[in-house]
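During the practical work, I worked with a single protein chain and the tokens that describe its fold, as given directly below.
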Amino acid sequence: MLTEKLRGKEVKIVKDIEKLSEDILGGNFLAIDPASKSAGYALFSKGELVESGSIEAPEGPIAVRLDYMRGELTKLIGRKSIGAVAVEKVRSHTGHVFLTWSAGTLVSATKSPKVIEITTTMWKKNIDPKKYLKSDEQDAIEIGRFVVTIAKELKG
């Protein structure tokens, strides 16, 4: 089981996933891989991947790029109600502040009050490195799969 591989602070995130498992497995759940020039997204419905992609921002100042990505994500979501959001945790001493701004901007587009931050090391425990090809879209899919896998394991 994947939950057996997790340690330390990761256990707290598992508890957060458990609290949101009905939203994750019973409705629309969105996973986001934030960035300041492009961002990946993966939309799950009832625990199944239904749509994914990346949003490429135009060249220009950070405010223009983030506004564009927020608008595009808002269009993609449409009238769907997003029960919960998982976003890659980008807040650290090594992460650029634009990544933090991107995460906040994209999460705000979902209008979901239920947000989980997932560290890179956590979701990478759920992938097959031989099949993994780095991209914003693939990262969002893997973040979402990680959260769905944990929610299913906890549900039993």
